Q: What sequence folds into this?
């Protein structure tokens, strides 16, 4: 796959990055270099290699999975413009 200048301009626009027209050839070249590296990674044989989360072996800390209400109802509703009976009160929008 090859990226041309118009595709590079479209990617920059989608990423909301302002790129001057004279920089588009260099950007397209950088994209093509990145795609080349990705193609090289696809050629690597990873059969039998376990996935890892870190370069050093370590156990992830886990917490007990408990359902709670958070005990913060008053704090959450403190900034509400209108709260009634422990809930946010909003205007009716559907008749």
A:
């Amino acid at each position: 796959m090859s990226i041309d200048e118009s595709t590079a301009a479209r990617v920059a626009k989608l990423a909301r990055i302002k790129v001057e027209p004279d920089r588009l050839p260099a950007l397209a070249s950088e994209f093509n270099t990145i795609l080349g590296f990705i193609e090289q990674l696809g050629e690597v044989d990873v059969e039998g290699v376990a996935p890892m989360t870190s370069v050093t072996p370590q156990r992830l800390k886990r917490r007990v999975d408990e359902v709670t209400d958070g005990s913060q109802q008053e704090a959450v509703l403190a900034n509400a413009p209108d709260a009634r009976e422990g809930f946010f009160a909003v205007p009716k929008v559907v008749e």
Summary: The first helix runs from residue 5 to 14. DSSP finds three helices and two strands in the chain. The two ends are 54 Å apart (CA to CA).
